[in-house]
Task: inverse folding
């Protein structure tokens, strides 16, 4: 578990209720899944995590894991994700979605509900990978 998992989860939960906005990066104004992940990363002390702009089409399916790895995140492999970790899921073929793991589910920007929510993982989502943010003390 990350040494700052409580702060990471609290930061993600602080985004709940923010409206969904593609490319959104401001809690309280508009966020997408990347925006939520960046806010969580800042709570962990990770200021250099850079996730570039993307489209909602299938152009990101191979890039997300590479970007997380290049940013110093640790791939969990078969280890189950813990609160404060990031999970990458495929909500549809060729699409990727990021979420922050909590003790009760996931915090993520839900486009269909037009808001950041905390909920159990959608059973239709295929888990792709799980990542631990760099531990910067």
Result:
């Amino acid at each position: 578990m990350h040494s700052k998992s409580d702060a990471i989860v609290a930061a993600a939960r602080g985004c709940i209720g923010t409206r969904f906005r593609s490319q959104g990066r401001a809690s309280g104004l508009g966020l997408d899944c990347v925006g939520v992940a960046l806010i969580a990363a800042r709570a962990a002390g990770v200021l250099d995590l850079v996730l570039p702009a993307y489209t909602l089409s299938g152009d990101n399916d191979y890039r997300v894991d590479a970007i997380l790895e290049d940013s110093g995140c640790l791939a969990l492999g078969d280890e189950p994700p813990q609160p404060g970790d990031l999970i990458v899921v495929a909500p549809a073929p060729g699409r990727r979605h990021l979420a922050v793991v909590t003790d009760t589910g996931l915090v993520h920007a839900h486009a269909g509900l037009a808001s950041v929510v905390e909920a159990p993982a959608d059973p239709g989502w295929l888990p792709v990978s799980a990542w631990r943010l760099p531990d910067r003390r």
